[in-house]
Design brief:
This protein is of the alpha/beta class. The protein has helices at 46-53, 58-77, 89-93, 97-108, 117-127, 170-174, 182-197, 207-215, 226-237, 241-248, 252-255, 258-272, 284-297; strands at 2-13, 18-28, 31-42, 82-87, 112-114, 139-145, 150-156, 159-166, 201-205, 224-225, 276-278. Helix content is 46%, strand content 25%.
């Protein structure tokens, strides 16, 4: 029996894109049941400004404001009961981040929370429902690759036992804005995870790994194997930006970032000594909605 239906929304203001997800959350018997109502992605790339100039520039500010105004109207049209907007890596580092947030609040009515890498990782983990894909007796590494940062969560006995955020993201890499010590810090952490937990596989999230899974023609729940990942990386690295669009049908906002994403996932798989990447196709926006429901906004 369906009880107390609610309409919940989440906004992810990321480094590479801005996303709005609206879901219907119903209590079906004793368990929440989520159904997608709408999903919008706008490739604004705040990181292009932040990683080169340290601030969100005027053009990006205007584009973000227009997107937020559009999201506000959509949420009103869908009669959203509760929502949360979270900003991640680029806004965390922007010198004018607070100013941008105040401007967005004034022009759209949307309050934005700038969340830490640790909170971002926790919300991504909450997107979950990994029981379909994993073995309770084994350990796993959850890895989310964004435009500005990569989040690593160790998942053991259906619980997050550690989480770490790294300033390694696809837009950051393309902008040559990665700190000299960050790749080594990333590799060292993964080596420690391998030694301590012996993970069975990586659970990957983010738009790039979803596209990688699609390019490899994987069925729902079918893992991406490390040799396939390496072969695809070699193939795409050999193609120009234009060729990736024309030959593989990639969108322009995906054709460049997918290569550094492949590189990050390959590094993680190799360092952790795993042969498979499981792709449940969930992300921060899903985690925000689940958090809203569990914190009482959907009950």
């Amino acid at each position: 029996m369906i009880q107390n239906p609610k309409t919940l929304a989440s906004i992810d203001i990321g480094t590479n894109a801005v996303r709005l997800l609206i879901k219907y959350a119903d209590l079906l018997d004793t368990l929440p049941d989520y159904k997608k109502a709408a999903y919008i992605r706008v490739p604004i790339r705040l990181g292009e400004d932040v990683f080169s100039k340290g601030v969100v520039g005027g053009t990006k500010k205007k584009l973000l404001a227009e997107a937020m105004q559009g999201f506000s109207h959509l949420m009103a049209a869908y009669k959203v009961d509760a929502f949360r907007a979270c900003a991640t890596s680029a806004m965390r580092e922007a010198e004018n981040g607070k100013e941008i947030i105040q401007y967005i609040r004034k022009t759209s009515g949307i309050k934005i929370d700038i969340i830490t890498g640790t909170e971002e990782a926790g919300l991504i983990f909450k997107a979950g429902e990994f029981e379909t894909f994993i073995d309770r007796d084994k350990n796993y590494v959850y890895m989310d690759v964004g435009g500005g940062s990569t989040e690593i969560i160790v998942y053991s006995d259906h619980k997050a036992v550690s989480s770490c955020s790294f300033r390694l993201g696809t837009v950051r890499i393309l902008s040559n804005a990665v700190g000299k010590k960050e790749p080594a810090r990333f590799a060292e952490h993964l080596a420690e995870v391998r030694e301590k937990y012996r993970p069975a596989a990586i659970i990957g999230s983010g738009g790039n790994i979803n596209k990688i899974s699609k390019l490899l023609r994987k069925k729902t729940g079918e893992p991406v194997r490390t040799p396939e990942l390496r072969q695809l990386y070699d193939q795409l690295s050999a193609l120009s930006f234009t060729e990736r669009i024309e030959d593989l049908g990639l969108n322009s906002y995906r054709a460049d970032v997918i290569v550094p994403a492949l590189q990050l996932f390959l590094t993680a798989a190799t360092t952790c000594g795993v042969e498979e990447i499981i792709v449940p196709k969930v992300g921060l926006v899903d985690g925000i909605i689940r958090s809203l429901y569990e914190n009482g906004n959907g009950k």
